[in-house]
Give the backbone structure.
Amino acid sequence: MFPSFVVGGAQARFCAVANRHGAVLRHAIVSMDGNLSCRERLRSGLDVVCPAVVIRRGDTLGNLRRFRAVLGDLRPDVLLTHNFGAIEWALANLLPGARARHVHVEDGFGPEEQDRQLPRRVLLRRLALRRATVVLPSHVLLRIAQTIWRIDKRRLRYVPNGVDLSQFSPARADGDAPWRLPGAGPIVGTVAGLRPEKNVARLVRAVARVPGLRLVVIGDGPDRAALAALAAELGIGARVALVGHLDDPAAAYAHMDLFALSSDTEQMPLSVLEAMATGLPIASTDVGDVAAMVSEVNRPFVVPRDDRALAEALSRLAADPVQARAIGAANRVKAAAEYDQAQMFAAWGELLGATGRSA
């Protein structure tokens, strides 16, 4: 159960896990907003259905009755819910007639919870997740689940995200990039949904402070037009490429010199892991586990959520290409040692009951 099955980090991870375990698992996917665009990432031949479910915003009691009926019809071996947007499914599973084994994964928060937990949501999580196995991809979330949500630590599982290292090459790409930018300055790239909590506007303003730096933004969303207008207003429209959504951005990383993350809230961003796997140095706001994720030599470039601080980090990396390459190489080594997707697949296979089954 997803708040939305739009292409994003949690959805891409689910598809990768589903593809890895193949015919061992069958799936019924519900998208609360009806968006099923990430289904394109599921391998053909998988046993996947997307049942139509009546969902009425604000009708909590009605939704609970309908969700319980759906669970009664599906009789799933595992109910897998994602983030607070699917919490009503967790509540429905506590009602008589449901009671599937419940695994809940929490990847992070929207802008409304970037600085503090909302009391009503804390109480709902305590109630809905008291019998669930709760999966957290970051140590920050693990601490929140223990100390604020007060989930029994025996029900908590730390499962870091992983990447397919074979898809990301630390060698600079020889072919044409999927964008055109004049000039010869270093290219800083980011991969993000263009939504308020990603605060790509901060990155645009930071790039405007660094002469010659060029910016590539991969991703789409409601903030795209505003970002284009901001770049023009700051006089750097020619230095900024808003590429939009790419079905597979893996190859695009190899055309970047630096990677940047400017979010107000994250936990364990997949884009940072992908940049590390590509051997890129990273300038990032200090959110979630980012400082712990990157190599030790990269940590001085994880900075407060401030335009000037991010601009300074980018400027220092751009000014010393030798140091930047060394930092990128260290990031690649750490990604290979700690974030290979094979470890993630094994953990999720056990959580979903795939381990030991034959296809």
Notes: The longest helix spans residues 321-338. The chain is about 35% helix and 15% strand.
